[in-house]
Amino acid sequence: MKRTYRFKRVTKPKKSIQPDDSIHTSEKSITIGARPKSQSQPQPGILSISNPTLSFNELKILPPDLFQMDALDLVLKILPPDFFQIDALDLAPCLLGKLLRRDDVILRITEVEAYRPNDSACHGRFGRTPRTAPVFGPGGHAYVYLCYGLHTMLNVVADKEEVGAAVLVRSCEPVCGLETIQQRRGQITEKPVLLTGPGKVCQALGISTEWSNHRLYTPGGLELLDGPEPEKILVGPRVGIQYALPDDVNAPWRFAIAGSPWISAPKKTLTLPSSEI
DNA sequence: GAAAAGATTAAA
DNA sequence: TTAATCTTTTCC
Length: 277
Prior knowledge:
The protein is of the alpha+beta class. Helix content is 13%, strand content 24%.
C-alpha cells in the first residue's frame, strides 16, 4: 500500500503560487518557491509543507507539475476498504467532497445517489448477473455499466459482500487536470456543464465498463481519496427511475453539496433536510 | 430468438 | 423535444 503522510503549511504562501515556481520535495516536506539551499528556514513568500494536512484550497492552487510527481502521494490519502463497508444510504453523503483520481485528473464528488437492497430502482434487483456481479461484491469496488447504450456510469459499491448496494456518482467539480478533462469531454469550458451528469464524470475520467469491479482502495488506476467535508448537504429524490415503485421513486436518496454549482439537473428537487430548516 | 427499455447527453 | 445507440433482461 501507498504510504500516507499528513502535511501542514508552516509558512504563508505569496498571494498565489505561480506555475513556474520551483518545487523541492523530501521525505517529510514539500517546498514550493525559490529557496536558497544555504537557508535552513523557509523565507517569507515560500510555501513549505510539513506535517500534517494540506487543505483543499491549497491543493487547488498547487502548480500542475506537482501532480505528476511522486510527491503527490505525500498529501493525498487513499480511503481504506472499511470506509465503504456500510449501508449505501450512509456511504452516499460521506462520498461528497471525496476525490476521484485517475492519472493527472482529480475530481471532487459533488452529487451522488444511493441504491440499496429491496430497492426497485437498484440494478441488484434481478440478483447477481454478469453485469451486476460487482454490486454484490465487497464495498470499495467500482461498478461501471453502460446506460442507453451510450454513456458509462460510475458507482461505488457499498456495504458488505452479498448485500448488493452501490452509490452512483452523478456530478463532480474539477480539482486537477482541467486540460485532460476538457480533452476527454471534447468541450473547452470551465463551467458546470463540463462535469454535471454521471456520463460526463466517466468520460472525464476515461472510464469504460472494463473498469467495473476495479478496487478503488488500491494505488494505481482509479482511486478514491480523502477530501474536504462539505458544510451542508442537500437531499432529494433520485433522477431517472420512473420505472420503480412509488416509494422508491420518492425516497430522498440523492445527495449534493449545498451551494455548489457543480450539480446536475434537476436542481429544484434538492433541499436542505427538514431537520436543518 | 426477438423485443423492450434504460440511474443520459447534446443539439434542435 | 428528440435522436443516438447497445447491453441486459424478459417474454414467447
